[in-house]
Design a protein that fits this description.
- The protein is 32% helix and 25% strand.
- The chain is an alpha/beta fold and 421 residues long.
- It has a four-stranded mixed beta sheet, covered by helices on one side. A four-stranded mixed beta sheet has the order 2-15-17-16, with helices on one face. The chain has a four-stranded mixed beta sheet with strand order 4-5-3-14, covered by helices on one side.
- Strand 16 and strand 17 form a beta hairpin.
- The radius of gyration is 21 Å and the shape is elongated.
- The relative contact order is 0.16.
- The structure holds uridine-diphosphate-2(N-acetylglucosaminyl) butyric acid.
- The site of uridine-diphosphate-2(N-acetylglucosaminyl) butyric acid (EPU) has 27 residues, from helix 1, helix 5, helix 6 and helix 12.
Length: 421
């Protein structure tokens, strides 16, 4: 098992460049399956989840090279349409293979995907929308099989949930379907938008990008293209919070600033100073008392992102007063609070979705565990803000979603090292 050892209490300082977005790169890589041609993707983050999805693509017939954050990939033929448990058990995003393989080959079978344990993560929204495009859906022995022997047909679809990956899946399949598809209640997170821009560059016709209603003209020929993945707003948010908890001064270069407006609003409410420049943001040292947040309510974009709930809650342990957390998307995303309690944080857990953080508390270095990608990053933030040494176990979760988080933090002056037990 890989772990981090962190000496806390050192203000971060300096600048760091934000890497490409994991949640944009994953669907874009899957979308390359829609064409036989060759793609060159730049700014692809070098993280465990990207290597995992590439292993699956390689298994089904893609050839690729991945060096210096540039991925060259081509799938002349989809050789396997049945993808079993061992390949997809650790990666929820493998659900994104359903849409493009079904659209290109008219059939696909996939074991239920794994991924972070952050609550029930159903796939009913995906399957309902596939049915509306004319696919036959069968679920047996934990395998999802989709088939459309005569091809998919455009439809008017109201999504059951504003689900990110379900929206991405349905967009990818609608592009090769016959006729027009309308998707209502589409998710519009920045990674969904980036995937749509990529598809448009390939030749797709999509109207309404960035809104909750999309209109897609199907049946167009798609070509191989070069594309640069958007920077990761979730990494930028994580590093901004890391700077704030250490009362440091850190500039985030190439940060997608406006994608994080909900976070900056909370920074203002908490009286955390920052400065926005053209394509960078600088978190300034906190000199006054940090204020509590009346309600940190997560929601779909552009509300406060669920993926930054745990990192921000850690910061709230330093606010002078009581802050309320309300996680509305996932019911298993407060488990990191038990780890935080070991470090001296005071809180009241109301139920699976709500908690009060009672600040300020001095966090003390402790042995702690990462429960998922974002909770793992939250533990790093807690360790950076704590007095003394912390050891964080299970950092494989963090490596799934953050490119060289330890290297970036070391560049900013943190004492963080990686070790194995
Ligand atoms: N939902 C359903 N039925 C479905 C699908 C989703 O009820 O068929 C519900 C979920 O239970 C949840 C809500 O819809 O309450 C939203 O879930 P969503 O489907 O959007 O989650 P996802 O697509 O599986 C993506 C990100 C997650 C991020 C969520 C929410 C990717 C690869 N993953 O997951 O990212 O937390 O959207 O924004 O884009 C992470 O990066 O650490 C991560 C977990």
């Amino acid at each position: 098992m890989h772990c981090f050892r962190v000496q806390g209490g050192i203000p971060l300082s300096g600048s760091v460049t934000i890497s490409g977005s994991k949640n944009a790169a994953l669907p874009i890589i899957c979308a390359t399956l829609l064409s036989k041609e060759r793609f060159v993707l730049k700014n692809v983050p070098n993280i465990v989840d990207i290597h995992a999805i590439l292993r699956v693509l390689n298994y089904i017939g893609s050839e690729y090279s991945f060096e210096n954050n540039t991925l060259t990939i081509q799938t002349k033929k989809i050789r396997r349409k049945k993808i079993m448990h061992n390949l997809v058990s650790k990666l929820r995003a493998s659900i994104l293979l359903l849409g493009p393989i079904l659209a290109r080959s008219n059939q696909v079978a996939l074991s239920y995907p794994g991924g972070c344990v952050i609550g029930k993560r159903p796939v009913d929204t995906h399957l309902d929308a596939f049915k509306r495009l004319g696919a036959k859906v069968r679920e047996k022995n934990d395998i999802i099989t989709l088939s459309a022997p005569k091809g998919l047909s455009g439809a008017d679809i109201t999504m059951q949930e504003q689900s990110v990956t379900a929206t991405e899946n349905i967009i990818m399949s609608a592009i090769l379907a016959k006729g027009k598809t309308i998707i209502r209640l589409a998710a519009c997170e920045p990674h969904v938008v980036d995937m749509c821009k990529f598809l448009v560059k390939m030749g797709a016709k999509i109207k309404g990008i960035g809104n909750h209603q999309l209109s897609i003209e199907g049946g167009r020929r798609l070509k191989g293209v070069k594309y640069t993945i958007t920077p990761d707003y979730l990494e930028a948010g994580t590093l901004a919070i890391s700077a704030a908890i250490t009362k440091g001064e850190v500039t985030l270069k190439k940060a997608p600033i406006h994608q994080l407006d909900a976070l900056w609003q909370k920074f203002e409410e908490a009286k955390i100073p920052f400065r926005i420049d053209k394509d960078s943001i600088t978190i300034l040292p906190i000199k006054k008392k940090m204020q509590p947040i009346r309600k940190l309510r997560t929601g779909v974009y552009p509300s406060f992102p669920t993926d930054l709930q745990a990192p921000f809650a850690v910061l709230l342990t330093q606010a002078h007063g009581i802050s309320k957390i309300f996680e509305t998307l996932f019911e298993g995303r407060l488990s990191y609070l038990f780890e935080l309690e070991k470090m001296g944080a005071q809180m009241e857990i109301i139920n699976n979705n709500q908690a009060l953080i009672i600040g300020p508390t001095k966090l003390r270095g402790s042995p702690i565990d990462s429960c998922d990608i974002r909770a793992g990053a939250a533990m790093v933030i807690a360790a950076l803000g704590a007095k003394g040494e912390s050891e964080i176990s299970n950092i494989n979760y963090i490596d799934r979603g953050y490119e060289g988080l330890d290297l970036k933090l070391r560049k900013l002056g943190a004492q963080i090292e990686r070790f194995q037990i």
